[in-house]
Specification:
Strand content: 15-25%
Oligomer: single chain
Distance between the termini: 83 Å
Cofactor: Zn(2+)
CATH superfamily of one domain: DnaJ domain
Family: Belongs to the DnaJ family.
Number of strands: 15
Pfam families: DnaJ, DnaJ_C, DnaJ_CXXCXGXG
Keywords: Chaperone, Cytoplasm, DNA replication, Metal-binding, Repeat, Stress response, Zinc, Zinc-finger
CATH topology of one domain: Helix Hairpins
Protein name: Chaperone protein DnaJ
Length: 387
C-alpha cells in the first residue's frame, strides 16, 4: 500500500465507523461487511469482490493499533488537516499536480521528498529510487556430515570439514553488476525480494519476486563471472567442535557458520549430521556405556573379583557376589559418557555366565558329586501344576 493510499483513503468510512470508534466496534463492523461481501457468498459478483478487498484493506490498517496510530497521524499531518492534496487540470483555478513528485522528489530547492520523511512512518513511503541500496539478505544454511569414532562421540572432538558454500562473487563483490556499473532496486518488489498476491480475494500468499528472483536488485549489465547472480562458490576447511555425548545421527546446529550474507546481512547456519562408528565391545544407552562381561560358572556360583576394561583404557576391579545369575547387572559409577554439565554417566555391566561345552571325565565326576551333595528340589515342579 502506497503512502498516497494512506493519506487519501478514508478507512473509517469504508468500515462505516467513526474515527473515535473502539477496537471492538471496528472488529464487529469488519466482520459484518466481510460476511456480506465475501466471494463465497457472491460468486461471480466482481463488485462484491472489490468491496471485500476494500474492507479487508481498511481493517488491516485501522484494526491494528500500531498501524492505526500511524494512519491517524499521517491523515492529521498531510491529509485533510494540515496539507490538502491539490487537484484539477489547470482550469478553474486548479493546476496540474503529480503525486509522485510530492513523494519521490524534493521541491525546487532539491531537498528530500515526503516519501523520505514518511518512510519510517509506514514501512517505506513512496517508491524507492533505482539506485537505493536493497535490504540486507541472510546467507543460506549449509548441510554437511561428519563420521567420528565411538570414543570421540563420548568425549567430544574437533574435526576439520571441507565444505563448498555459496558466497558473494569475488569479481563484483556480490552486486551482480558488471564492473563500473551498479545494480538497481527492483521496482516490482521495491527491494524486498518478496511479492504478495491475493488468491480468490481471500488468502494472501508471499513468495520470491519473479522479477529479481528474490534478490531485491536487478542489473542491466550483469557480471561476467556470476552472470548477475552476485554469488560464487567457495571451498574451505572449517574446524568444527563436536560436543561430548553426541549420539549417532544427531544433527548439530552451528549458528553463523553457513554461507555469507548479502549487503551486510548475517551469515546462515551450518548443520552437521554426525555418524558414530560402533565400538568393538562397548555400547551406549543415553549417558551410560554398556558392556557384556563373560564370567565362568564357578565365578558366578562362588563369587569373585574380576577386572573389566573401561573406555579410557584403565581397567577397574569389580566384585561379583556369590550366586550371581546369568544376565545380572552391575554398575561402575563415573565411567560412562560425558553429560552436558561435564559429569559422567556410568558403565553398566551385564554378566553372561558361560557354561562349558566340553568336560573331562574328572570334571564330570566332580559335577556329579556336586549335584548329589546339593540336594536341590525339582526346579521344574511348578511347570506341571494344575492350571
Amino acid at each position: 500500500m502506497s503512502t498516497k493510499d494512506w493519506i487519501e483513503k478514508d478507512f473509517y468510512k469504508v468500515l462505516g465507523v467513526s474515527k473515535t470508534a473502539e477496537a471492538d466496534e471496528i472488529k464487529k463492523a469488519y466482520r459484518k461487511l466481510a460476511r456480506q461481501y465475501h466471494p463465497d457468498s457472491n460468486a461471480g459478483d466482481t463488485k462484491a469482490e472489490a468491496k471485500f478487498k476494500e474492507v479487508s484493506e481498511a481493517y488491516d490498517v485501522v484494526g491494528d493499533p500500531k498501524k492505526r496510530k500511524e494512519y491517524d497521524e499521517a491523515r492529521r499531518l498531510f491529509g485533510s488537516g494540515g496539507f490538502r492534496m491539490p487537484s484539477g487540470s489547470g482550469q478553474g483555478g486548479g493546476f496540474d499536480f503529480n503525486v509522485g513528485d510530492l513523494f519521490n522528489r524534493g521541491g525546487q530547492g532539491g531537498g528530500s521528498g515526503l516519501g523520505d520523511i514518511l518512510g519510517g512512518m509506514f514501512g517505506g513511503g513512496g517508491r524507492p529510487t533505482t539506485t537505493t541500496t536493497a535490504r540486507p539478505r541472510r546467507g543460506q544454511d549449509i548441510e554437511t556430515e561428519a563420521t567420528i569414532e565411538f570414543p570421540e562421540a563420548v568425549n567430544g572432538v574437533t574435526v576439520g570439514l571441507r565444505m563448498t558454500s555459496d558466497e558473494p562473487c569475488a569479481t563484483c563483490r556480490g552486486t551482480g553488476a558488471k564492473y563500473g556499473t551498479v545494480p538497481k532496486v527492483c521496482l516490482k518488489c521495491e527491494g524486498t525480494g518478496m511479492q504478495t498476491s491475493v488468491q480468490g480475494g481471500v488468502f494472501a500468499m508471499t513468495e520470491p519476486c519473479t522479477e529479481c528472483k528474490g534478490r531485491g536488485l536487478v542489473v542491466d549489465q550483469p557480471c561476467e563471472t556470476c552472470h548477475g547472480s552476485g554469488r560464487g562458490q567457495s571451498s574451505k576447511t572449517m574446524q568444527v567442535r563436536i560436543p561430548a555425548g553426541v549420539q549417532d545421527g544427531q544433527r548439530i546446529r552451528l549458528k553463523g557458520k553457513g554461507a555469507a550474507g548479502e549487503r551486510g546481512g548475517p551469515a546462515g547456519d551450518l548443520y552437521v549430521t554426525v555418524h558414530v562408528k560402533p565400538h568393538r565391545i562397548f555400547g551406549r544407552q543415553g549417558e551410560h556405556l554398556t558392556l557384556n562381561v563373560p564370567v565362568s560358572f564357578t565365578e558366578a556360583a562362588l563369587g569373585a573379583e574380576i577386572k573389566v576394561p573401561t573406555l579410557d583404557g584403565l581397567p577397574v576391579t569389580v566384585r561379583i557376589p556369590a550366586g550371581t545369575a546369568n544376565g545380572s547387572k552391575l554398575r561402575v559409577r563415573g565411567k560412562g559418557s560425558v553429560r552436558r554439565d561435564g559429569t559422567k554417566g556410568d558403565l553398566m555391566l551385564t554378566l553372561e555366565v558361560q557354561v562349558p561345552h566340553e568336560l573331562t571325565d574328572e570334571q564330570k565326576e566332580k559335577l556329579q558329586e556336586f549335584s548329589s551333595a546339593s540336594d536341590q528340589p525339582d526346579l521344574r515342579a511348578g511347570l506341571f501344576g494344575s492350571a
